[in-house]
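Pinned message: reference record for 5-methyltetrahydropteroyltriglutamate--homocysteine methyltransferase
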Amino acid sequence: MTIVTNLGFPRIGARRELKRALESYWHGESDAAQLQATAAELRVRHWKLQREAGVDLPPSNDFSLYDHVLDTAFLFDAIPERYRTLAVCAPLAAYFAMARGLQRPGIDLHALEMTKWFDTNYHYLVPELQAGQRFALRGDKPLAEYREAKALGIETRPVLLGPVSFLRLSKTTDGSDPLDLLGTLLPVYAQLLEALKAEGARWVQLDEPVLVQDLDDAARAAFRQAYARLADGPHPDILLATYFGALDDNLALAASLPVQGLHVDLVRAPEQLDAVLRALPAGRVLSLGLVDGRNIWRNPLDNALILARYARGHRGDDPLWLAPSCSLLHCPVDLALEKKLDAELRGWLAFSRQKLEELRLLADALDGRAGAEAALAPAREAADARRRSSRVHNAAVKARMAALTAADTARATPHARRLPLQTAALRLPAFPTTTIGSFPQTREVREARARNKSGRLSDADYDAFLAVQTEQCVRVQEQIGLDVLVHGEFERNDMVEYFGEQLDGFAFTGNGWVQSYGSRCVKPPVIYGDASRPAPMTVRWSRYAQSLTQRPMKGMLTGPVTMLQWSFVRDDQERAQTCRQIALALRDEVTDLEAAGIAAIQIDEPALREGLPLRNAQRQRYLEWAVEAFRIAASGVADATQIHTHMCYAQFNDIIDSVAALDADVISIETSRSRMELLDAFARFDYPNQVGPGVYDIHSPRVPDRTEMVELLRRASEVLPAEKLWVNPDCGLKTRAWPETRAALEAMVDAAQVLRAELSAA
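Predicted structure (tokens):
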């Protein structure tokens, strides 16, 4: 019998129950016991849902209160020294301090650095290690959650981040190689596996996604060392899970490791199946990732069944498992909650529960169960209907794409000649100050939006409310002394959703939430057809805000690559083509903003680095079309109009030439958590344009003072010339409260003034 399994389930709950429980706890409105009770309720609900959907072996320990990489660091006592005292007396407080920072009387803790999980929009906390690091088991989370499921009569497979991937995803504070710590880490992994075995676990899943990346000899040796050590002792059977790409030149290594099963991603890399079948030793479990764990389209089940039958024909009696391509963390929970989607579009979609049901259908068809193959017909019919649908294709968009020329992808003159015109137009001092765009989205703002959406607040009254909020935001920025202002974005629900709602070819769900980090959830648009802009999207509020002040007002847009990356993207044409369509729509918005008198326009691209393919050989082509898309959006303006972009939580070393090729006049980046380390790439490259290194970590509730920001700006001035530097927070301020926002921005402006005085005195 074919086994249906799953690599991981969404944690947040179908209605974001975890988000609400976390934020209630952080605000002091509930206690730890209530938070943990909600977490336990979600785990039970999700195990039962998976079993109802037909999963034979669901995972456990895939649940997290914040992030699974942080969980791994905490589990193995990889807790930096600054959190140690707190961890002894208040472990949960220390856990959240590592994630978010903590500022109380007598306590001021910075959060761990945060970055993207491979090429997804999920953010993980980067473990901080050092030479001589010691590891030990702290708590029993994997064991406890395995016992919870077992008490329900559900056998699960505990999930752990594998030891090599854990170390490769970590950073050291002293420049040493994290892999040097493997010998110290492995005994603790072995101790945990032995405890799981004693608890009765039959299988354990060790996630090693770095196996789909380019590995050097040291990393390959680390894999051999790690799994030889883990096999040398009592342990459950090990499923080695790889995903997000093909094993390729790491296949022989993966197949040689002493594990009992191997999971491969056949959605991202179906072409690897033949090689996997040849390489995997007889008797091993082969887990086939056949439905897409990262998108929401119904899967082509006929194609998946062909792959499964092909594998069964080659594997004979060896066990075969069917699974999603990766954890379903990146998908919403249940399509059944979508009551307002039109029937045609809804028929094209599958959320997490539906994907598991698809796997059950595939397994039944593979095993020859009566009626199973006939049950695949609706998927076939839905795919045919989608291909034929007139709403997917727009002849005008295709004609405009065909007319693109090289002149549409470049500014008329280089930055060095544009800069004097922009400086004169904007009248900026040294170390100019600005923000990234959004200001606090208070409960009042969110409630007004909800009341307007439900019809309880008229459009006229809602507009009047937004006008008041915008004017107040402008006045606060003037009082603080910021040089380039923003309108605050009170009309916007999300930086992608807001634009997608106004573009043709986009659709929206009601409950299609996925986790970005911690309690931060997003509801990605669904790009189902050719993208175009029927009308201006941001001009009205930007023009109104500019009318309120003599200071320059910055227009705020989300860039084409980020619109693409943070959406559920159509899979019937190349992503590059979809990205160019979005870029053309944004180009119209940029030129309309310029015509409305907006002299600085920010086109955010935080997802540029995120979209980078995991293999070096595939990266150049992606970077070429990603840069081209940005330039299509940005290049229709005059030289005096200043184009900004923003990127956050990304490493730039290996793409700095492409970042420069964007030719944005100013780029703002996240640097406060890394203490300006990320600027080194810009200095080594001799980045030609201007840079705004973030001096205020907005993802933490702590408020940095002027001294801290001055120190960061001095560090920045040591690696980049003062005339290239702007001063700004790390990211938008929508998640923060007004008191902390104002205090932090006042300190930021004061810090800029200190640097200006030092520059004048030099």
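Pinned by admin. Summary line: The first strand starts at residue 3 and ends at 4.
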